[in-house]
Amino acid sequence: MRLHGYFRSSAAWRLRIALALKGLAREDVFVHLRRGEQRAPAHLARNPQGLVPVLELDDGTMLTQSLAILDWLEETHPAPSILPEGAIERARARAFALAIACEIHPVQNLRVLNRLRREAGFDDAGVAAWARETNAEGLAACEALVADRPGGFLFAGRPTIAEICLVPQLGNARRFGVDVARFSRLLAAEAAALALPAFAEAAPERQPDAE
Ligand SMILES: N[C@@H](CCC(=O)N[C@@H](CS)C(=O)NCC(=O)O)C(=O)O
User: How far is ligand 1, taken at its centre, from the CA of residue 149, in Å?
Assistant: First the structure.
């Protein structure tokens, strides 16, 4: 499989973690987002949305949208599972992952920040405040969703889609200057996850295209 991604892309980061958790090898193809390579015809042919990640299967099939790809991975490579046991816990873990992937991440995406600058007159400080506050507000809601859950991992005695989405989003939050210290339950889950090589090795600074 070929993972078309970028070291700093948190959506690609989710897939680096999941592929490693499931013991699946990948070849990386780098799409430099700051240079706009996601809008080049070659990449638009893979994903007309002009986004990474894209997972290219051995038969040439292109899969897009990281959460859909996580579902595909779980269906085709069920062990080890990245979902908790039981329908209610699965619904809760999915809700947590979607709170990040649908509510926080899209509004702090590169193209949105660029549009704020280009079309809404935001200066650098305004863009930084937008990114910081959308992350802080969204992660505060995530902390509230799981505050009463004991232990390290959030929904099982092992990592699930919740940590797969959480760890990259905490990375974004720090990059945008959020003081994450108040999210103690999220930090406990992150620490449990980062003790595993699959999470530790997926970090942006460990990728060959890191700058
Ligand atoms: N919902 C998509 C989000 C993909 C996405 O927003 N990718 C970002 C990097 S994390 C991207 O390619 N941004 C390029 C841009 O905004 O132009 C997913 O989960 O795959």
Answer: 30
Q: Give the atom of ligand 1 at the shortest distance from the alpha carbon of 6.
A: 9
Q: Does domain 87-199 have CATH number 3.40.50.720?
A: no
Same fold, 2-80 and 87-199: no
Q: Whose CA is nearest to atom 20 of ligand 1?
A: 65
Alpha carbon 20 to its chain's center: 14
Task: Report pLDDT digits (tens) over 82-138.
Answer: 999 999 999 999 999 999 999 999 999 999 999 999 999 999 999 999 999 999 999
Which class is 2-80 in CATH? alpha beta
**Binding site membership of 51 for ligand 1 (Cβ less than 6 Å):** yes
Residue 6 phi/psi, 5° resolution? -150, 140
Domain ranges of the chain: 2-80, 87-199
pLDDT value, residue 102? 98
In the sheet that 62-64 helps form, which strands lie side by side, from edge to edge? Answer: 27-30, 2-5, 54-56, 62-64
pTM over 0.70: yes
